[in-house]
Specification:
This protein is an all-alpha fold and 1473 residues long. It is built from 74 helices and no strands. Helix 16 packs parallel to helix 18 (341-358) and helix 27 runs antiparallel to helix 28 (558-573). The radius of gyration is 56 Å and the shape is elongated. The chain starts with a helix and ends in a 5-residue tail after the last helix.
Length: 1473
């Protein structure tokens, strides 16, 4: 029954779920993709196929994406469902899709103009919607994605182009059906574009089109949804909406809220309300103004909608609306008098919501107070600017109260005026001191006014002084005050500041000073001042005052940065280490107490010496903890300060040389350094963060406690992964705008690479375990073989830095693996790589202590600068020859494995170099590899399937095998013989390679022949013997001469074929070896006999080329016969006939080696030998050159064997003896006749009977009637029994033998033979028309011979007509003519023919049944009346009537004619039938 659409969808849904649970399978992806793209498939099924494809991405995303991209081509309109599947991938797997997004968008851009159908346009709109959402997610959450940051600007550019095309080409002329996809894509696209300042104006310009789509209730919800997305993005990116657009949005959204709430309008109303909440957050003032305007209308629906929205806003507790509560109240009061029940009800609900909100504490607004404060402050500042501080009485009023306004941050704007007043007061006082002995005008009293402390003044003035570098007057004023206030700050500072401050002011004369220089000078002044004061308590208080003033400055301000550095400098000068440690720990663990935690790091710039001092002190006293860390920052300057500080920490701890100290914050600081490095982009090198962080990590890594191996590996891997993949240096350099920028980038690049090399060198060689060193070096492996030159170059430069310059490696450090990895790159494409690879490889032996050889190798290394590949290879080969002698023999296996990996993965000259190094090592070390030989061969064999695909690499493998075999031929042969049968292509190739090697080919075939001989000693064949045979086949197949070994090879292989007849291959253990099979290649079926036969065929073919054998009369069918258990003896006979007997020496040698087979305990082997000799018995030349009498005797014995096949072959051999040695037949006639006649009684096996009949024919031709007289009767009687045999060959041979017997009757058996002729004549006559023409011809011949025995020579004429090729008689005519003649001569014979004819009515052959009826017709027609009366008419009629129903028409017609003849004769004779 056919399924309906619903049933079909349900069925495929289950299929989809099932496939989604499967493991990844490329075929499933292809099938799903094919169904999805098939236009002849029902649309629902195509959609389900797409879902299947998308669900498969969870298991193998790359395969699914590849399948889709392969059907998503530039300038070709794709299948609709391919586009939809790509869109769904972007939704379900955004993280994996983003890296492919640029390619997808570029391709899609070329397709839009090709789309004409509505469905195709809709698919592209859906794709734009999903792609925009995915990119929007990435733009806002890129840190959550597991790969380096991509250029979102390029992605948004492509979205912009696609969106602009759709809005310009499709949107103006779109149909209602097409509008919905564009509306859905509109919101995500515009939202994404809003994050770009250069695209904001265009994006917002498209919003009116969206608002104009409010017309159809089916799409209104989607319009609102897109609008909500746009408003959310605008709020997120702080994009200001134009006033007209804003009002249009307000109006349209209010209309959506005020509509009748029916589905789907209800959902639309909810979305519109959400939009108003967003607007309340981003545009509260404009929204309140709009609400106030609209609520003043008398429209009930409008008023109700606004009240609902206001209630939602109140419930949402939007913070930005708190300052507009008054506006809300004013707006609501407008409708207080509305009499509408609905409005009044909503009014009550609103008031209740406000009351509930009012229960919660709200931050009061103080805009008016703030305005008043600003006015007062402005007036006061104006008074200060105009104030004359020296007016009589004014100094006493201002001083010292005016100092209280210096410290608070809120008076920062008045500092210019304040400093001028204070300076005027102090300078006036200084003038008075010169004229009077004492002045009391400016006395620092401690009255009711709480004056700032000297430390507070110093801290404030130093910080404000930093502004002088920016040219601000307050900064210059602060410096001026410092010059005037040394005694107030501290009495010990007078002399110091008098000397230092003029120097400090010099950089400010005429121009602004460098910020860095000015900052350093101020910090130096502070440092010297504290040293001069040398008061711990005073210094501690100053540090506390610095800390207290932190909150007075913006986190990114220059004052805040300087304040931290000043704090660090102050702590550095403090001698109380406990206080210092506690303070620094407090700052770093909880920095938020003092401001932005990023600024903590800046205090290290001048304060790191405190760490050094405190660490030294605490190491000496108690070894207690010093530092706690909790910092993360993305400001480069602060990162650099922090990194530099960490470096100095590491140096300080190392300088302390306290072996018992453990730096507890080591792992934490390492984590911060790694975070800094991770945050650096992978496509540029603009900052020194990487470089400095690597240095810090290197020093930290040396501190105790030591990290675990995994931690070290993770640190190194992270650093390598963040530095080596950088773009090429030239690309990085071109990012610089000026030459100075470019030089700086090169400088950073070189320093970063140097730092990474030193880090790896430090971490690697600080280990005491050789295995750990190897693990660390392995991190560079993938980069050393990278396909990108610049990545390889960096990896080799780092490697050279790690391995060169007097490295002290741990004990048992193995160099061969690294040597095999590095050496082939001495022929790499770049000179820098070649030099680094050679230097590294040579350095490995320096590590091992081979200093003299290293100096020699360095001389060769210089030649690698040449760009000539042949020169490079020649030098690399010379280095290889020297180095190969130095490789420890115990490590040669590892070296070979590494070079084999190189042959697989490398390309170009590196592959050649890899092969040269491998072969050189084997030449030098081959003789000492006996203990490792099996492992070496195993490794080579493992790599063969892959290397076979690379011609050059494969040739090196073959050369390597030949090298090994030249030292250890027997071992290699033994190893290859262990490979599973049938040999795979690689094993065969190895055998051929050995055979082609002049050094081993001469020994190989002889050694294999000896092994085969020993494997067949007991006439039993094991797998070892079959393996040897297969190996012989490969060796001979390349044309290896077999002349000298041919007799032995032939007999052994024939014996193997015989012993493996019917044998099954034992189940082999599962092989884990890699298999790479060519297209169309099929694995050979493991049949032992077939394998043996194939080898014999190969040897025989080679023998024919060498003139040792001839082509078989069976052709290629010979080998099919040979390995078949039931036809094996036939194949052996054919094989024997292909012997080149003229090379009687070779054949005799084969016969001598095969003679034992005749008496073998293996029945199969006896059959093989007997069959082989049975054919050779007919060759006279062999009887002359070899004594076959013993064979004849054994043949005679085998003729009586219970095995029918063995008897058949033995009888054949006896028969063939008649051709090869007639005299032997005459001599042993009795023995041979008895054996052959015995075969005639083996009725169960006609092939034995047939063979006996043939043998009798051959033997009887050599004997006289007297020789045969004793056996004549027996032979005749047995021969007659086979005239009607179903086997053509048996019938033919029996009839021919009967003909031969006619000549051997003699007087004794002439009458007997005549009687037998009468009995047999019916068969001869009927089989004249035998289905086999040869049988018919034989019957004609035997009739011709037999007629004289009956005195019927008159019948010759009738028989001769049968030979008339132009007009041969028909059977009916022949029988009538024959019976007419016979009736005249002998009615008795005619009657005998009639009595025997009934038997043939039931013959299996239609022709015989037909001719039997026709002969009966002729007999009835020619019988005399006397004999007619004797006929059993009733039986004859019954039989004829039965034959009238015969399936054969010829029989039916003959029966009808014969019946009519009988009835006519009866009628003529008046006899009742």
């Amino acid at each position: 029954m056919s399924q309906g659409p619903v049933e079909t969808v349900e069925t495929f849904g289950y299929i989809n779920l099932t496939i989604d649970m499967l493991s990844k399978d490329d075929n499933i992806s292809k099938y799903a993709s094919k169904d999805m793209r098939d236009n002849n498939v029902v649309r629902e099924i195509r959609m389900l196929a797409g879902e299947v494809l998308v669900s498969l991405a969870a298991h193998d995303f790359n395969s699914v994406m590849y399948e889709l991209q392969s059907n998503f081509r530039i300038l070709e309109l794709p299948n609709e469902f391919v586009v939809l599947a790509l869109a769904e991938l972007a939704t379900s797997y955004a993280s994996q899709s983003i890296p492919f997004m640029m390619m997808t968008l570029l391709t899609m851009q070329t397709m839009l103009r090709l789309a004409e159908e509505e469905s195709m346009k809709g698919a592209f709109c859906i794709a734009l919607e999903k792609f925009s959402k995915a990119i929007y997610k990435y733009v806002n959450h890129w840190r959550d994605f597991p790969y380096p940051r991509l250029d979102a600007k390029r992605l948004s550019d492509k979205i912009f182009m696609l969106f602009r095309f759709i809005m310009e080409k499709w949107a103006p002329m779109t149909s209602p059906i097409q509008t919905l996809p564009i509306v859905k894509a509109h919101g995500p696209s515009v939202s994404l574009l809003l994050h770009r300042e250069d695209l904001c104006e265009y994006a917002l310009g498209q919003v009116p089109w969206l608002l104009n789509q409010y017309s159809d209730k089916e799409i209104d919800f989607h319009v609102t949804q897109s609008l909500k997305q746009i408003l959310t993005a605008a709020a997120l990116y702080e994009v200001a909406l134009p006033k007209d657009l804003k009002r249009s949005i307000f109006v349209n959204l209010l209309h959506q809220v005020c509509r009748v709430p029916e589905p789907p309008e209800k959902e639309n109303e909810m979305e519109a309300s959400s939009c108003f909440l967003i607007l309340a957050h981003s545009n509260p003032a404009d929204l309140m103004e709009f609400f106030d305007e609209q609520i003043r209308s008398n429209n009930e629906v409008t008023r109700s909608g606004i009240l609902i929205l206001l209630r939602l806003v109140i419930k949402a507790e939007e913070p930005n609306l708190r300052s507009h509560i008054t506006s809300i109240e004013r707006t609501v009061k407008v409708v207080m008098g509305d009499l509408s029940i609905k409005v009044r009800e909503l009014m009550g609900i609103f008031i209740r919501s406000v009351v509930v909100l009012g229960d919660k504490p709200a931050k009061p607004t103080s805009h008016e107070d703030e305005a008043g404060e600003k006015s007062v402050r402005a007036t006061s500042l104006e008074v200060l600017k105009r104030l004359d501080p020296l007016v009589i009485g004014m100094p006493q009023v201002l001083w010292p109260r005016i100092l209280t306004f210096v410290i608070p941050a809120e008076y920062t704007g008045t500092l210019d005026s304040l400093f001028n007043i204070i300076r005027s007061l102090i300078m006036a006082e200084e003038r008075k001191k010169k004229n009077a002995s004492e002045s009391t005008a400016l006395v620092i009293s401690t009255g009711v006014v709480r004056l700032p402390s000297p430390q507070q003044l110093l801290a404030r003035l130093l910080v404000i002084s930093m502004l002088a570098s920016l040219g601000k007057l307050s900064g210059v004023g602060a410096i001026g005050l410092l010059k005037l206030l040394p005694e107030i700050i501290h009495p010990k500072l007078t002399n110091l500041w008098k000397a230092r401050l003029p120097e400090l002011l010099q950089p400010l004369e005429g121009k602004n000073a460098s910020i860095a220089l000015w900052e350093a000078m101020l910090l130096q002044l502070l440092k010297e001042s504290l040293w001069e004061i040398s008061d711990i308590a005073w210094t501690i208080q100053l540090s506390l005052d610095f800390s207290q003033q932190m909150s007075s400055y913006n986190n990114t301000s220059i004052e805040k940065k300087f304040l931290w550095k000043a704090l660090g400098t102050t702590l550095a000068s403090c001698q109380d280490t406990n206080f210092v440690s506690a303070q620094i720990k407090e700052f770093l663990v909880a920095p938020n107490q003092l401001g932005d935690q990023r600024q903590v790091i800046s205090s290290y710039d001048n304060g790191i010496c405190i760490f050094n001092a405190s660490i030294r002190a605490e190491l000496t006293v108690s070894g207690s903890k010093v530092l706690g860390m909790s910092v993360m920052n993305k400001d480069m300057d602060l990162q650099m300060s922090f990194t530099r500080s960490i470096t100095e920490i590491g140096i300080a701890v190392q300088d302390a040389e306290d072996q018992g100290f453990k730096f507890s914050y080591k792992e934490l600081l390492l984590g911060y350094m790694l975070d800094f490095i991770r945050d650096e982009p992978l496509d540029s090198l603009a900052t020194p963060v990487r470089w400095k962080a690597l240095i810090a990590i290197r020093y930290l890594s040396k501190l105790k406690p030591r990290l675990s191996l995994n931690d070290n590996l993770n640190i190194l891997e992270e650093n390598i992964r963040r530095l080596l993949p950088l773009p090429p240096l030239e690309t990085l350099r071109n990012e610089g705008e000026t030459d100075k920028d470019k030089e700086h980038i090169v400088f950073l690049y070189e320093r970063s690479m140097d730092a990474l090399g030193k880090l790896l060198r430090t971490m690697m060689w600080d280990n005491v375990r050789a295995e750990d060193c190897q693990e660390m070096f392995n991190l560079l492996r993938m980069w050393l073989v990278s396909q990108k030159e610049w990545e390889r170059e960096r990896a080799f430069q780092i490697t050279a830095k790690v391995l060169t310059n007097d490295v002290e490696a741990p004990e048992n450090f193995k160099i061969t693996s690294l040597l095999g990895l590095l050496a082939p790159h001495s022929c790499d494409s770049l000179p820098s790589i070649r030099q680094a690879a050679a230097s590294s490889a040579i350095a490995l032996f320096y590590i091992q202590g081979a200093h003299l050889e290293v100096e020699r190798l360095r001389g060769l290394q210089e030649g690698l600068q040449s760009n000539d590949v042949q020169v490079q290879l020649k030098i690399s080969s010379k280095i290889a020859k020297v180095v190969s002698k130095l490789i420890p023999s115990g490590e040669i296996l590892v070296f070979l494995e590494e070079t084999l990996d190189g042959l697989e993965t490398l390309s170009g000259p590196c592959v050649t170099a890899c092969g040269l190094w491998m072969v050189a090592a084997l030449k030098e070390q081959g003789a000492a590899l006996e203990d490792q030989l099996l492992e070496i061969l195993g490794i080579i064999y493992y790599h063969l399937p892959i290397l076979r695909q690379k011609e050059e690499s494969f040739q090196f493998i073959l050369e390597a095998i030949s090298q090994i075999a030249s030292f250890h031929t027997e071992a290699v042969v033994a190893n290859l013989l262990q490979k599973p049968l049938p040999f795979d292509r690689d094993t065969k190739t190895l055998w051929r390679a050995l055979a082609e090697n002049p050094a081993s080919s001469s020994k190989l075939l002889r050694a294999l022949t000896v092994k085969l001989d020993s494997g067949l000693e007991d006439d039993l064949a094991g797998m070892d013997a079959i393996s040897v045979a297969c190996a012989i086949q490969e060796v001979v197949s390349i044309g290896t001469p077999v002349t000298s070994l041919y007799p032995q090879l032939f007999t052994l292989l024939l014996k193997l074929v015989s012993c493996t007849l019917g044998q099954k291959m034992p189940t082999a253990a599962w092989s884990y070896r890699r298999r790479v099979m060519q297209q169309g290649e099929r694995q050979q079926i493991a049949d032992p006999c077939r394998l043996s036969t194939t080898t014999l065929k190969c040897v025989q073919t080679q023998a024919m080329r060498e003139g040792l054998a001839k082509e078989s009369d069976e052709g290629d069918n010979l080998w099919t016969l040979l390995h078949g258990p039931s036809t094996h003896h036939i194949g052996v006979c054919a094989l024997a006939r292909s012997m080149a007997v003229w090379h009687h020496g070779v054949t005799v040698d084969i016969m001598g080696k095969l003679f034992p087979s005749l008496t073998s305990s293996s029945e199969n082997y006896r059959i093989t030998g007997t069959a082989f000799f049975s054919e050779l018995m007919k060759e006279p030349i062999l009887w002359r050159h070899w004594n076959l009498r013993d064979v004849l005797i054994l043949m005679d014995q085998s003729a009586w064997d219970s095995n029918a096949t063995l008897r058949q072959m033995a009888i054949r051999g006896l028969g063939n003896t008649a051709s090869g040695a007639p005299q032997k037949v005459r001599k042993h006639k009795q023995l041979m006749l008895e054996s052959v006649i015995r075969g005639l009684y083996h009725l169960a096996r006609t092939e034995v009977v047939c063979e006996s009949l043939k043998a009798l024919r051959k033997i009887l031709q050599l004997l006289t009637d007297r020789d045969v007289s004793f056996y004549f009767k027996e032979i005749v009687l047995q021969t007659r029994t086979f005239f009607e045999d179903e086997q053509d060959d048996v019938r033919l041979t029996a009839i021919a033998l009967f003909e031969n017997l006619a000549s051997l009757t003699g007087r004794r058996w002439k009458i007997f033979f005549a009687e037998e002729i009468k009995k047999s004549m019916i068969s001869f006559l009927l089989h004249l028309w035998d289905p086999n023409p040869k049988v018919g011809a034989a019957c004609h011949d035997v009739l011709v011979v037999s007629i004289p025995f009956l005195g019927l020579q008159d019948l010759y004429g009738v028989l001769d007509r049968l030979l008339d090729s132009q007009d041969p008689p028909r059977a009916r005519d022949f029988y009538r003519q024959f019976c007419v003649k016979l009736a005249k001569k002998n009615q008795e014979i005619l009657w005998i023919l009639h009595t025997h004819s009934f038997t043939f009515f039931n013959s299996n052959w239609e022709m015989i049944r037909s001719t039997a009826v026709k002969l009966t017709d002729a007999i009835v027609l020619n019988l005399t009346n006397q004999y007619v009366e004797l006929l059993d008419k009733e039986q004859l009629i019954t039989r004829l009537q039965a034959l009238r129903q015969d399936p054969c028409i010829s029989v039916q017609r003959a029966a009808e004619a014969t019946l009519q003849t009988l009835l006519r004769r009866c009628k003529e004779m008046n006899i009742l039938p």
